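Progress against Task 2.4 (sequence-to-structure conversion) is shown through the following example record, which the project officer requested during the mid-term review.
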Amino acid sequence: MMNLKNDHLLDVLVCPECNADLQFKTATLFCTSCGKRYGLDQNAVIFTAPPSDINPSELRERGEGKDTPWRHANSVFLRNQLRQLSADTLLLDVGAGRGDFLPFYEHLPHVLLDVYPYPEVDVVCDLTCLNPFHENSLDVILLMNVLEHVISPLDLLRSIYTMLKPHGKVIIAIPFYLKIHQAPLDFQRLTHFALRELAQRAGYSVFQLEGFYDPCGVIEESLRYYRFWGRAGQNWLARKFGTMTLALMQVNLKLLRTLSVHPFIGDPFKVIYPAPMGYHLVLEKN
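Structure tokens generated for the chain above:
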């Protein structure tokens, strides 16, 4: 039998057609005013159909020793932000996927949203198309490695602005130096200039904006690309030469990591190094 798996949903959801309250009955949510019904898939409420060309994410084990430096930096950043929140903070994780960041906020009231009905998700919705949330109902919204997958990030930022309470926060991580991933739903890489402009156009104050820099990581990422995709179609001799060269470069890279510049967080408007792995932002609703 289908049931709502999250007790907070009826407190924050409204009918996107008429903004009336929703009730749950016989495996559907229905509008108390216009009668519109919204079904469930894996107990997630479906407001928009999942993209037909999506490449769903697989469940990956995360944690110490298993994450890339960028993902580790995301975890440190998010943990620091959530540490400042009170126990009754209501949080929405947009683009939650397989719940990669759920362990960081599971002690808080929360809702998980994605455009695909992953088992961990509570709401399936494309917020750039419609918005099923009460105005001024959420304290914090997460966009962790999500904005690059949104064709119109300004539309998304404007949509979630209405859902936030006054002075509510949006916590964002967005990669910059990263391969195309989850194709074909990977649309852009945004600079800190673009991120600040988008935030201001959507009506937010930029509370925090930092870059994550990893010079050796840039080299490491390039070597990984070559290792998996650059040797396709090569003959035996070329592949052998490539394997030996890559092994030597990996040894040199380990030495560089020990002796050279380590990963660091910096103000992207002041850091001279021009290639961040990604950005962390905190936006505040005015």
